[in-house]
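Re-run requested by the PI after the first attempt was lost when the workstation crashed. Everything re-entered from the original request form. Ligand of interest: FE2/S2 (inorganic) cluster.
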Amino acid sequence: MSAYLDPVRHDRERVALFRRVPLLVGRASQLASPGDFFTHDASGVPLLIVRDDAGTIRAFLNVCRHRGTRVEAAPCGAKKAFVCPYHAWTYGRDGALLSIAHPSGFAGFERRGLVEVPCAEIAGFIAVAPSPDAPPIDRTWLGPLADELLGFMPASSHVYAPTVMSKAMSWKLAIDVFLESYHLRPTHKQTIYPLFFDNLGLVDRVGPHLRNVFPKRSIRELANLPSDTWELRRRANVLYHLFPNTLVLVEPDHAAVLHLWPQGPDRTLLTSYTLVPEPPNDKARAYWDANNAILYGAIEEDFAMGESIQRGLASGANRDVIFGAFEHALAHFHRQIDLHTQ
Ligand code: FES
Ligand SMILES: [Fe+2]
């Protein structure tokens, strides 16, 4: 139970998981051209992520090397250079310090560029380990899931409808609620349950990650169709948990990406978006928006349970939390947290 409540454990996990493990902070398609950038703060570390002139995506601490001011304030944009608002030290797209105002006062500091942190493109995602001491990112981090994800959502997929919400629960609870289908009938009875079976899901553990397949009732129709016409994503939801804090829900013609960021032992920020094949016109927007309304309706039902659990555990009623036989994906997730935190 301390997994969800203990502030000391929380701090330890934030350092071990959210500074050193590759975190998926966005999509490479968001930075199409040199100079395109976005800033990212949800991990607790201010990051500036930019495509440099050679076309490489790089990540820097968004912190001026003079006195520490935030260098780039905008959430995203395109720039030739990044100018600190305080005394106008100026950094290039590669993080190099380009100019110091009145440089005679700072002889010897001409090479003090932005601090770079490990960054890599994996399966169309931008992965960052937001600490200058973190090891370089292993491009095989997602193992065989990288090709699977690219098969479902090409690197060129468009990021649509980015969303942010804040919830009163541990980031781990916010992930737990997605990792089993035992809750589907009672929690989602009036919404998505009619599409699925009661308590039926397949789980594969893939390294620290998880692949969950939740078949839809319509999968039974495949028995009468030739197997070369079968398409899993049309007959099941495929939900990946990419350790530690990303969920990717593959639906028939798009995917939803959710990142859960701890803000405290009982506070989580969700940043999410929908990956669609191309930038939508008005008609496509209406279609994706209708899809998202169903998805976020179900997510609110899940998060209501998560917030309820957080309040319940804080009461001290339960000394431990039971993961039953249908909940072994949760056990895997928590085991991986322990392994990476030791
Ligand atoms: S703090 Fe950035 S230029 Fe002085
Ligand atoms: Fe759910």
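Saved to the shared folder this time. Residues 282-314 form the longest helix (33 residues).
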